[in-house]
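Most newcomers find our protein records easier to grasp once they have seen one. The structure tokens are whole numbers drawn from a learned vocabulary of backbone shapes. The record below serves as our worked example for the rest of this section.
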Amino acid sequence: MTSRGTPSRFLKSVLQNGVGRYVCQLKRLSIIFSKNAQSSLGVRGFIEEGVVDYAKYNPSTVVYVSPQSCRIPKIVAEYLNGNVREEIVTSKTSIQISEVLTKLTNQSGLDIIRLRKPFHTDNPSIQGQWHPFTNRPPCIGPIRPQKQDAEQGLSNI
């Protein structure tokens, strides 16, 4: 926590994702719905149309479909780091549910918080951060806009 009262952290990669091959962080997905409730109509439509395609495109994620006597349909996502997210999908269409599943699949399971810096390294350099003028010789002087040909042509007259 910072003095602002909002949590923050440095930028970090989950399980060194991006260094080697990509590892999807979503490991288990449970779709809980009611067989009869009107609020589960979109979920039942998604199960008939799109759950097989989703499972085919995401082979590393286990998909559980469990009909229960519940009023509120929900999707429970479990990630490799142990975090669990629940999304309520009451009265959503099949397309909206597939968008929710895509969002949950692309997340890492970490809480969404403010980043302290847009860059961070585990092995900091004592030389400082590089920028285009790091090795510029000081004898050149400051950078100024170049004079245009029109101004030079008038001064020659």
